[in-house]
Amino acid sequence: MSRAASTIIAIDGPAASGKGTLARRLARHYDFAYLDTGSLYRAVGQAVLAAGGSPADEAAALAAAEALDVNRIDEMAIRSREAGEAASVVAAMPKVRAAILHFQRDFAANPPGGKAGAVLDGRDIGTVVCPDARAKLFVTASPEVRAHRRWLELKGSGSAASEAQIVDDIRDRDRRDAERTASPMKPAEDAYLLDTSNLSIEAAFGAAVAIIDKAMS
Ligand SMILES: Nc1ncnc2c1ncn2[C@@H]1O[C@H](COP(=O)(O)OP(=O)(O)OP(=O)(O)O)[C@@H](O)[C@H]1O
Ligand SMILES: Nc1ccn([C@@H]2O[C@H](COP(=O)(O)O)[C@@H](O)[C@H]2O)c(=O)n1
């Protein structure tokens, strides 16, 4: 018997905007599968770093993307500042993006666990990976607010990075992600913009559910 079409929710936005927190919670709320697509690029960047290479080396990045085993991603290692930076360097390479596009689309179309839908978060979900998603959100917050949230998070895990360093990282990453030619970060034309600068996690979730329920009705 063929499976009903999966309902896809696309959550895009810049670094540390809160899209992962929101997407994970939405997946629980709708009982959908969840995919953090940034973790794929982080894993590729981290694999190149771990092998002593440079993320700017296209051959090394492509080899790491082709060898990526999504079941063996080191969740701790990919969360470092360095892995985030390396991710945005390898993510600008069209061949790296092509190597992991199929996995993302397959996850969205055939969510694991027999779920009826999937929530994917990233930079190009609404524009490239799943342009036909049922609901699309582009989650933003000011660079200062995002840097403060990320600083709190990294401090909790023992990182010594200063808030000033983190805001610089975020601005660099935003620029690289928005200005690259391959699948640049941008809101899809039919995405709803959700600025969480002045919203708590709870308030952002409530606003997102209201938008998505309307889009799905
Ligand atoms: N509305 C909010 N108010 C306060 N803190 C928040 C809010 N949303 C998320 N956070 C916190 O901000 C940090 C970054 O959130 P999160 O990891 O969800 O962002 P992200 O956009 O997925 O980041 P990345 O681009 O690195 O994957 C986390 O520590 C999270 O708990
Ligand atoms: N769909 C995506 C998701 C991520 N990227 C790149 O990966 C970097 C890390 O992503 P986080 O969501 O964990 O911050 C990000 O800066 C992008 O360069 C992407 O290109 N497309």
What does it look like?
The protein is of the alpha/beta class. The chain has one domain: Rossmann fold (3-Layer(aba) Sandwich). It is 52% helix and 12% strand. The protein is built from nine helices and five strands, in the order E-H-E-H-H-H-H-E-H-E-H-H-E-H. It has helices at 19-30, 38-50, 58-66, 81-90, 94-109, 125-129, 143-156, 163-179, 201-216; strands at residues 7-12, 33-36, 117-122, 135-140, 192-195. Strands 2-3-1-4-5 form a five-stranded parallel sheet, with helices on both faces. Helix 1 crosses helix 9 (201-216), helix 3 (58-66) packs parallel to helix 5 and helix 4 (81-90) runs parallel beside helix 8 (163-179). The longest helix is centred in the C-terminal third of the chain and has 17 residues, at 163-179. The radius of gyration is 17 Å and the shape is globular. It starts with 6 loop residues before the first strand and ends with a helix. The structure holds adenosine-5'-triphosphate and the ligand Nc1ccn([C@@H]2O[C@H](COP(=O)(O)O)[C@@H](O)[C@H]2O)c(=O)n1. Its EC number is 2.7.4.25. Belongs to the cytidylate kinase family. Type 1 subfamily.
